[in-house]
């Protein structure tokens, strides 16, 4: 019977690794186990079909390093993976010298071993092998970080690293499967972190307490726009609806010749949905404060929630007034269809007659919804890789890129951000509520909402989350990870209907950790 490969595993504690061995055998590998270096040398000598040696560094008697030299004398072609308790410099030197093909740090994870074997045995092209190896070396450190209590800055760093690996591992499906599991594990931890930390952030926003917290949606204008205006710089403020960080990363290679690029981050407010987050951006207020100050603007509870975003221009005008920026001229425009965009591209220089130009761009949000509604778009973007690629294709040929090229010749500063991201929703969870419960898939508000608390943040105190009380009740539920809400009636039908759709409104890294990009033209 053919196998995926013949592995010789030498470890004096091999009995404790039986689950790892079974893991490999279930994936088609033949695994021979020995407990010391001498037996490893003998096994290699007797069986020239050994494909890879997993060699524990520290074993009684003949240790791993001593066995390594003998194995290489007998089989210089066989890859040897050293398993060690610490990353020591000599192992790096051995690796560079070709004595070992890789090394793993204890405790090893079965998925780490699997990826290493795949890389060594399946003749992956050199670049992909290096990329997989880089992720393998980081796998344990990422998992360790997820087990620690980390803060908002560390979560940004971790998310950026996961996105980096996701973009790099384009051609290694096995590595991508491992990464997908680690991404979900990270989002599980992130949901718990947000549930604990978010009310503290909101309290500090109200009291202006000096605590370590991230900047939130409603602080973008005061933190990133105000300083440029006060320095008498013309600002173009682009809010691209529903743009994830990994989507943004498709743009810099095209923009780098035109602009210097600075990347910062803010956290999107909850729920990560347009009526809440984008109004917060333009008003400089939390949703509860918006509802209190502008009760007539907070509409849509009984109908289309996007009707709440009809008032972005007056909200921004009032925000500038509160920030003592009302002496600067402002122009606002929302670009929805392609004709709006083409018109903007033709007239973009005229916009610079105003000090601040606030532009809302809806295409990426339309793309996310189209993926749910259109079989053609879903076929073109079956996963995150293709979804990003589709974004890049659009941008490269878009009126937005054309507009930015025009602006690169002008003396202005461009600030780009988003109100929220989106998550690929793969798991339905049951929710119970009355007929007045809102209809969104990743967040809901109403009376007596019931949901699995492991799958959602249950908000009983709207005030603590900076949210308005609603006529339908004060309870909000906000989905964690990649869950979406489905009513028990016809559960399977609606779960299948919305499965694998791009949704927003919940608490995930993709929806909440959002880029703020500052572009400065190189030509000026």
Word description of this protein:
With 524 residues, this protein is an alpha/beta fold. It has helices spanning 18-25, 37-46, 64-74, 89-96, 110-121, 126-146, 152-168, 173-207, 220-230, 245-248, 252-255, 274-283, 287-293, 312-322, 338-351, 363-373, 375-380, 384-396, 399-407, 491-498, 509-512; strands at 5-10, 29-34, 52-56, 80-84, 102-105, 235-240, 259-267, 330-335, 356-361, 413-417, 423-425, 427-432, 443-446, 450-451, 456-459, 475-479, 483-486, 501-503, 513-521. Helix 5 (110-121) packs antiparallel against helix 6, helix 6 (126-146) crosses helix 8 (173-207) and helix 15 packs parallel to helix 19.
In terms of topology, how is this protein built?
Elements: E1 5-10, H1 18-25, E2 29-34, H2 37-46, E3 52-56, H3 64-74, E4 80-84, H4 89-96, E5 102-105, H5 110-121, H6 126-146, H7 152-168, H8 173-207, H9 220-230, E6 235-240, H10 245-248, H11 252-255, E7 259-267, H12 274-283, H13 287-293, H14 312-322, E8 330-335, H15 338-351, E9 356-361, H16 363-373, H17 375-380, H18 384-396, H19 399-407, E10 413-417, E11 423-425, E12 427-432, E13 443-446, E14 450-451, E15 456-459, E16 475-479, E17 483-486, H20 491-498, E18 501-503, H21 509-512, E19 513-521
Parallel strand pairs: 1-2, 1-3, 3-4, 4-5, 6-9, 6-10, 8-9, 12-17
Antiparallel strand pairs: 7-19, 10-19, 11-18, 12-14, 13-16, 15-16
Helix pairs in contact: 2-3, 5-6, 6-8, 7-8, 12-14, 15-19
Q: Give the proportion of residues in helices.
A: 40-55%
Our estimate of the beta-strand percent is: 15-25%
Mean pLDDT: 87
Q: Shape from CA axes?
A: elongated
């Amino acid at each position: 019977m053919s196998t995926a490969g013949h592995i010789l595993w030498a470890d004096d504690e091999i009995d404790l690794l039986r689950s790892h061995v079974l893991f490999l055998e279930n994936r088609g590998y033949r695994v021979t186990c020995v407990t010391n270096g001498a037996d490893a040398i003998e096994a290699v000598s007797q069986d020239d079909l050994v494909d890879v040696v997993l060699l524990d560094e520290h074993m009684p008697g003949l240790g791993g390093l001593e066995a390594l030299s003998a194995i290489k004398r007998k089989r210089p072609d066989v890859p040897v993976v050293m398993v060690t308790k610490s990353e020591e410099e000599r192992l790096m030197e051995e690796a560079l010298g070709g004595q070992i093909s890789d090394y793993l740090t204890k405790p090893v994870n079965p998925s780490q071993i699997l990826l290493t074997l795949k890389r060594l045995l399946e003749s992956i092209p050199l670049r992909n092998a290096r990329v997989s190896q880089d992720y393998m070396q980081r796998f344990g450190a990422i998992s360790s970080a997820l087990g620690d209590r980390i803060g908002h800055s560390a979560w940004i760093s971790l998310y950026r690293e996961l996105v980096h690996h996701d973009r790099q591992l384009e051609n290694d499906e096995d590595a991508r499967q491992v990464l997908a599991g680690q991404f979900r594990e990270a989002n599980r931890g992130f949901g718990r972190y947000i549930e604990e930390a978010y009310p503290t952030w909101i309290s500090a926003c109200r009291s202006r307490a000096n605590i370590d917290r991230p900047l939130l949606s409603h602080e973008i204008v005061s933190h990133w726009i105000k300083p440029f205006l006060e320095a008498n710089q013309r600002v173009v403020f682009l809010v691209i609806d529903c743009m994830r960080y990994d989507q943004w990363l498709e743009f810099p290679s095209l923009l780098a010749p035109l602009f210097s690029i600075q990347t910062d981050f803010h956290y999107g407010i909850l729920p990560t949905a347009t009526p809440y987050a984008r109004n917060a951006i333009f008003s400089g207020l939390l949703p509860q404060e918006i509802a209190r100050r502008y009760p007539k603007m907070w509409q849509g509870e009984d109908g289309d929630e996007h009707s709440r975003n009809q008032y972005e221009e007056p909200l921004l005008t009032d925000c500038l007034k509160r920030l003592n920026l009302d002496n600067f001229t402002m122009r606002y425009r929302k670009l929805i269809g392609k004709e709006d965009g083409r018109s903007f591209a033709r007239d973009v220089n005229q916009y610079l007659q105003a000090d601040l130009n606030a532009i809302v761009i809806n295409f990426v949000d339309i793309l996310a919804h189209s993926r749910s509604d259109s079989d053609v778009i879903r076929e073109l973007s079956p996963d995150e890789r293709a979804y990003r690629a589709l974004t890049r294709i659009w941008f490269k040929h878009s009126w937005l890129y054309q507009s930015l090229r025009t602006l690169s010749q002008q003396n202005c500063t461009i600030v780009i951000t988003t109100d929220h991201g989106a998550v690929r929703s793969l798991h339905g969870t049951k929710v119970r509520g009355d007929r007045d419960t809102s209809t969104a898939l990743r967040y809901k508000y109403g009376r007596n909402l019931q949901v699995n608390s492991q799958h959602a943040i249950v908000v009983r105190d709207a005030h603590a989350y900076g949210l308005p009380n609603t006529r339908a009740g004060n309870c909000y539920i906000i989905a964690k990870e990649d869950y979406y809400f489905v009513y028990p009636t016809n559960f399977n039908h609606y779960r299948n209907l919305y499965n694998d759709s791009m949704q927003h409104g919940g608490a995930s890294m993709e929806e909440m950790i959002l880029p703020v990009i500052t572009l400065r033209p190189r030509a000026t």
